[in-house]
Amino acid sequence: MNLKSNLDITNNHQERYYDLDWLRVLAVLLLIYFHAAAVFYRGELGDFYIKNDLPSPVLGWFIFFVHQWHMPLFFLISGAASWFSLQLRTPMEYVNERFRRLLIPFIFGTLVLVPPQVYYKLLTHHTDIGSYLQFYPQFFNGIRPQGNFEWAHLWFVIYLFVISLVSLPLLLFFKQEMGRRWYSTIATFMKQPGVILLPALPLAIIEGAFRPKWFGFQNLYDDWANLLLYLCYFVYGFILYSDTKFRQAIAQYQKLVLFMAIVTMSIIFGIQVTEVLPVRGYSGEYILYQMLRGFNSWCWVTAILGLSQQYLLFTNSILQYTTLAAYPVFLLHQTVLVAISFYVVQWDLGITTKFLIISTATVMVTNALYEMFIKRLNIVRFLFGLKPNDINK
User: Fold this and answer.
1) I need a labelling partner for 345 at 20 to 30 A (CA). Which of 111, 192, 242, 248 fits?
2) pTM of the model
């Protein structure tokens, strides 16, 4: 999630990819509504920190749909950002930037932003855990799920940090002359009919081979399905924005991939509704289902890239403001949302009203905290992965 706005891409000309800036901003905004909906979700993806007494089937389907492509899109955008970054930085400068931008906010967030989420979660089950200050030392008692220590939504940051470093030799190869010739040939081939769907094959294989065992607990060291899937999307993002012919292929077959995304999503929905899916495991039916999910994910991500190229190639004051705010808002939003949700779910209101209150209040409070503290104080900017201001405003 380190998309550098206003970077110039030099492919014998200068071009600004505002569509990626918009995608990143909108993906962060959508994440707030996704987590607000998670309060009312019950299903195989697991329980959120705060649960409303009554679930919402509509919000449940919203969760299921967005989950198909949302995080893959984040990692693809991050891979594209790494392409831009390595045009302006040496490998060592890139690594230093990864530490500053990702590892420091991750450490800070794990120690400061995650414990309140665990505290509120425990409050929903135990009323005698004491004050937050009394609880804080207990945060380090064991690792989830046996203990309290976890990194919550910051799993994305540590995964991105590790993937950025592990993939660096491959990224540097793509920067070399041999690598450039290789992906230029691939880019030309991608403009052939139907080839735009071929990158889905590795994703489908990963889902089919690893998802039956590693369903999605993001602990990094024992999560091979997610780690390999997101590594693949990250590298895809790096390659897709290395040559303009890839973007041309996406635009050329936008309608095809959108059609395939809708068709395969309809099949996946049908499988869920009819409850014909077998128990998770290495059965032929379950493996084929997960492979279909991998294929569908690529179709949605590619379709969204195509739509963004068509409708989001512009900038304005909103984009300029939110591009800088997006990363701090991502880091902060879930802590704010969990705290607000803890109280709102206790109110005697309908599900729709609660959802709107939680999501709207989270957007407003998170933005207010960004505007009052993160944006203006250099020490806080540092902890949230932002460059310092010369003069605090």
Assistant:
1) 111
2) 0.93
